[in-house]
Amino acid sequence: MSANPSLKGAEDFVSFVNASPTPFHAVRSAKERLEAAGFQQIKERDSWASTLQPGGKYYLTRNGSSIVAFAIGKLWKAGNPIAMIGAHTDSPCLRVKPISKRQNDGFLQVAVEKYGGGLWHTWFDRDLSIAGRVLVKTKDGLTVPRLVKVERPILRIPTLAIHLDRQEPFSFNLETQLFPITGLAAAELNRQGKGEETKEVPKIDDSFEPLATPLQRHHPYIVDIIAEEAGVGPADILDFELVLYDTQKSVIGGLNNELIFSPRLDNLGMTYCSVEGLIQSLKSSTALDKASIIRLIVCFDHEEVGSVSAQGAESNLLPSVIRRLSVLPASESASDKSYDKVEADITTAHEQSLSSSFLISADMAHSVHPNYPANYESQHRPEMNKGTVIKVNASQRYMTNSPGVVLLQDVARRAKKASYSLSSAKEGVPLQLFVVRNDSGCGSTIGPGLAAQLGVRTLDLGNPQLSMHSIRETGGAHDVEHGVNLFESFFEHYEELEKKIVID
After folding, report:
1. Are 120 and 153 within one domain?
2. Which pTM was predicted?
3. Domain count of the chain?
């Protein structure tokens, strides 16, 4: 490495993670970056026929927790390819239960439900708070969402002192011993009895309600705090979807600032790289002038619980967007310069687009762990800051195959060189390969499901990290730049490279 390697990408990523404790916040963070880059919001419920134009940049959201963004080449014609990168916005966490109010032995507690396959022991003895989406009632009778993020720590899951239980290894009951404490009952009673200092407790309407109100189902002071964050009164809160998050910020660490210590690297690492890769590929005002394809990213919710939801990767979100885009008419300037001089048959444009498109399934990968070397296949041991990892699995848990590897190598050769690279080459980013041991299980990604749904060529990759699914994970600071540069190159060069790899 050079004496002063660039940390610009890592620092920007850290800001992105710190602003994104939930999928709702991650989508908002992505929206802000896309809008600053000139992307226009559209909605699924609207007709796109008169809105979408070749040369335009657009984005849409579903449920506020999944987002699709794309840019249309000015020489686009129906049936042309779509270059796609898919990631996910969710991470394992603890979610506040619909009826969360608990009290035991003088402590106020909050009941939580586990989301995804987290390393739950890492959530003990952390300074926790709450964030998520709140549905509120406005003065004109509308129900609208508000995002909240309580900055100060208000919850903690305490471990039992070793003097009282010397169990090894540490174990606990996920239902009865994972409840965070949020204060003392006596202190809350004292707060409520402070006269003028006490907020007026709103009267609960005695008219019929099918469910108990949030003020009845949760500790009232927590509802007060949420209402203050949302800018409404406690009685205006209709419902919420809140999760716990660690208030310790994502930071750059290591002796030489070469590491990132952070929550939610899996998979905000790849969400960030996909958003920035798309934006960077369009930074030139003429980037779309000679392009005849569509550049697209999609970041789904619910990957950590199987992707089977209305906004997950198994939904119709991406297939329906592709179907609508594939039949978009060409602009008058497309003429004979487009991808194919033969005008696409509009009845088969969708199938034509899928057959020539490509999807990168971007999900964080495993770095080799120095304390557990035996858990890794001897010749497939990815290292941090050595480049993005291509993930391969013969049982199709990952979708990578040889044509995809050849394509991605060409993309990597043409990518902008990292500012700290040891290589003397003018361009290029490194890649690594990973397979699991034959005696080990293998995780999966959004790749297999989307490949099966769409029939589109797919490759799985991700930046290497340690402590995956922990409340605090570790990644390489310089791999952020590797990922962004690789994705930028993919969007810039796919149109040319796709024609050179002929399989069927």
Report:
1. yes
2. 0.94
3. 2
